[in-house]
Design goal:
By secondary structure, the protein is an alpha+beta fold. Helix content is 38%, strand content 17%. It has four helices and four strands, in the order H-E-H-E-H-E-H-E. It has a four-stranded mixed β-sheet, with helices on both faces. Helix 2 packs parallel to helix 3.
Length: 111
């Protein structure tokens, strides 16, 4: 059963416990400058091969603007998880605006 506001196309939706752990990781990666926010930046990190994992907000409107990301993640063997709220993702990224997608990247110089 899907929740209100969550698009049914968000098929790898994290539960509350996993969401909290993932958002904590995003917050830490922001502190270490290993975070890229937004659909364009996320796509660039995927194409550049420096993404560790991708988080996508399941309540992005319209969701179709970011549905290319799970396909790209599958091609590049990068984990991709949907979280419930773009507002919570934005807070975890350290900004006051909603964030629809973010990429946690590898540390530059360590490959």
């Amino acid at each position: 059963m899907m929740e209100a506001g969550v698009n049914p196309q968000a098929h790898t939706l994290a539960d509350a416990h996993l969401t909290k752990k993932l958002l904590d990781l995003v917050q830490q990666s922001c502190n270490y400058k290993q975070l890229r926010k937004g659909a364009n930046e996320t796509t660039k990190t995927l194409n550049g091969g420096i993404s560790e994992f991708i988080l996508i907000a399941a309540n992005a409107e319209p969701l179709e603007i970011i549905l290319h990301l799970p396909l790209q993640c599958e091609d590049k063997n990068v984990p991709c998880v949907f979280v419930h709220s773009k507002q919570a993702l934005g807070r975890a990224c350290g900004v006051s605006r909603p964030v629809i997608t973010c990429s946690v990247t590898i540390k530059e110089g360590f490959s």
